Amino acid sequence: MSRRVILIVMDSLGVGEEPDAEQYGDLGSHTLLHAMQGTPGFSIPNLQRLGMGNIQGCEPCGLALPTGELTGAFGRMRERSKGKDTITGHWEIAGLETDIPFKTYPNGFPEEFITQFQDAIGTEVIGNKPASGTVIIEELGPEHEATGKPIVYTSADSVFQIAANTAVIPLERLYEICEIARKMLVGDWACGRVIARPYVIKDGKRVRTSDRRDYSVSPSGKTLLDHVIEAGQTVYAVGKIHDIFNGQGITTSVHTTGNMNGVDCTIEAEQSVESGLIFTNLVDFDSLYGHRRNPEGYGRAIMEFDRRIPEIISAMRDEDLLILTADHGNDPIHAGTDHTREYVPVLLYGQGIRCGVDLKTRQTFADLGQTAAEYLGAEPVTHGTSFLSEILK
What we know:
The protein has 393 residues and is an alpha/beta fold. The protein has helices spanning 31-37, 45-50, 86-93, 111-121, 133-147, 171-184, 224-230, 241-244, 259-272, 284-290, 295-314, 366-375, 388-391; strands at 4-10, 73-77, 126-130, 151-154, 159-165, 193-202, 205-208, 213-216, 234-238, 252-254, 276-282, 321-325, 344-349, 358-362. Helix 4 (111-121) packs across helix 6.
């Protein structure tokens, strides 16, 4: 079998609040709608043809096309797992649901942990509080640069982030410090991700670099990725997919410097992978625009990706299945800087796909993973119901 699934996660591109959004403080969130409303001249004709505007809940966007003009199948998916973070969303897409949410640290990490961490890395740290990454490096950057003490902080997610000026703490040393933290943040101190946040000073401003690295916990069970490899096929990870799955179930991976580089790497993979899964994460939507509450930037990033879709499609083979989705929301006009609990889109395209099929609302992201597993002839994943029979000609 030479089938391939090209699965692209438009990181945080939610399509409206989920029924339990109030529990997360996310009533009224709709990432796509608010990015569109905040962007003059917003236009996404290629996503529209795939059915983005026809998804239930996207009616206020005014992007729906007549069914006869659609070139793909479409729907939305509800997250069944507890939480709204990157790892939880991606794992559920890959067929693994999370019943107990990852532990968060709204008051910073316990003093006992910080003391032991400082002993382990041989230096004191500063910060240890929830903060925006771009804000905290301005706030604590001068002290860090004067003392050499790493900046540690967290967010509403289960993350332990370590920021450093690479002229003060070289990149490899920053990664080493993060690896030490990763080994320690288990058990009572469990944490979903440790993130290296390097920055430089450019034209007098502190600017984060693209050398970010995530150190995640390993998945709690087998995922779609493992099953594809066990079926003798390739799993080609683009962007932070390798980090999210801690390398589990991945045969090849490539680091990216942003959305457009991620698209370039995806197209390169389409030229070389013979069979299996090409799994891409496009992180700029989330990291550059959602968390920074920049609706116009978010809208322009969607438009920029939309313009590249024909290139992705032109590199496809007859047996390929393209799937576009997201892992959570990050409404760029919502209060705070956190992710939002939203439905995510699922758009499907391929020569064998019935155009205009409305998959309506799927009750778990895992339906996508189950569908991909069936399409690739891999073992079924733990959760989810395949919708392959609904979309194939």
